[in-house]
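Researcher: Predict the fold of Protein-export membrane protein SecG.
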Amino acid sequence: MNSWYIIALYVIHTIVSLALIFFILLHSGRGGGLSEAFGSVVSSFASSGIVEKNLNRITIALSIVFGITTLVLVILL
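Model: Structure tokens for Protein-export membrane protein SecG follow.
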């Protein structure tokens, strides 16, 4: 039952999960997010409207991929 595509799906799911955690932590919320921990260089970039919009788009795309891989893994297993 453990075919190569299930193993590949596990690997993709793990990579997307870690990337999603990272990008969610980069968002600046009330506390400034993880970007504030890196110093003023990243904080100045995070305050830009274009960067924030792209960060939102990447996070949404990763969450959609995460949801799809979760559903596929549940159906296959």
